[in-house]
Each structure stands twice: as C-alpha cells, then as structure tokens.
Amino acid sequence: MNVMAVDLIAVDTLLVRFGDTVDESLVPRIRAACDRLAEALAGQVRDLVPAYATLMIVVDTRRADPLALIEEVRGLLADLPPSVESAQRIVEIPVWYDPSVGPDLERVARYHDATVEDIVRRHAGDTYRVFAFGFAPGFAYLGPVSDALVTPRLDTPRAHVPLGSVALAERQTAVYPVATPGGWNLLGRTPLRMFDRQTPNLCPVKTGDRVRFVSIDRAEFHRLGGERA
Fold this sequence. Notes:
Blueprint: E1 5-10, E2 13-17, H1 27-40, E3 45-50, E4 54-59, H2 66-77, H3 84-88, E5 90-97, H4 105-111, H5 116-125, E6 127-133, E7 140-143, E8 158-161, E9 165-169, E10 172-175, E11 180-182, E12 185-189, E13 210-216, H6 218-223
Parallel strand pairs: 5-13
Antiparallel strand pairs: 1-2, 2-4, 3-4, 5-12, 6-7, 6-13, 8-11, 9-10, 9-12
C-alpha cells in the first residue's frame, strides 16, 4: 500500500494521506487500512475516520503517544492489500422513485432534457462506491454518478428533508439517514434504515462497499416499512 504521509495534525490526531484527489481505487485500500488499524491498535485509538483520500486516527492519549504511533502506523500499512470484502460486497437499497417522495425528480429530468423514467433508469442502473461518512450519522457519500445525472445542489436548502430521502448533488448521491435540513435534489425514498442505534453495525454499509439502488413501487415501499411523512 502506498501511503504518502502520516502526520500529526492535532495533539491527539494523526492523518494518513493516500492521495491528493478523489480516486475510487483508493477506497478499498483505505477500508483495508481502517480494518487493520482497528485490530492492531485496539485500546490505543478512540476513532478511525476514513475519507476520500485520507484516514484520520484519533488517539487515546491516556494509553498511547501519538508521535510514537507514527512509525507503527507506517509499518502496519506497508504492503497491505486492498480490502477484498469491500471489492466484492454490494448492498442493494430499495427506492420508491416518485414525485410525491422525490419532489426534485421532475426538475432533474427537465435539467437533463430527459423523462422521469430516464432519470430513474440512470440512477438505478449504476453501482456506487461508499467514499466516506459525514454531515449526519449514517450519511454515506456515494459516487461517482454518471455525467447524465450530474445536477447542481438546490439554490436554497430545504429546512426539512425526511428520513430515508434518496438524493443527488453534483457527482454524488446519498440517503438522508435522519430528518434534517439539506440542499440535495430529492429523487425518492427508501424504507431501509441507514442509521439504527439498535443494530450492532449502526449502518448497513461501510466505507469501500458498493451500493446499488433498486426501484420499487409504492406497495413494496410500504410493505418494507416505509413512511411518507
């Protein structure tokens, strides 16, 4: 594994840099690094935060010296292969695509001089990589979307985006795991819980996983526990 740098960026935080740009090929490597460090440094770190081209390590300074960990981290990540699990795992997310739950669906179609059916087919026709988590617990940044779907964010964010809303902004797509304000284009809604404190893993996807959206109808949406509110 080619690690560009391991730097101390705060009194308790290290940053491992794998590249300078968003590169899908880095994602399974960062996932593998996260898994390796979580096992090898158990008890010494408080959190591992993977992102597009970096991995942040928050050290428990009561149990470890961040500066002393730099060389250990470099050694642990030397010649580490990409995560096999993340390369193979595909998580399917059911989505009811409809203007009643995807109020921007028709506007996105007009933006691309396409039909609503075209947009649904394009969005559900690709497989997306989980690049990172942020903004809200369980909010997974997925991408990249095809050129035929790239759409700017809303000029004015909504004050309320319902839980489970499937959204699109620029070259990324995502599911809102909780009700929150947001400025992404809403295409539909999923009944799948993207963040659940009652489950061991909290979220059904991990960084490095691939995601495929599966179009379902209203009846299936409700059968699977979806809510319109």
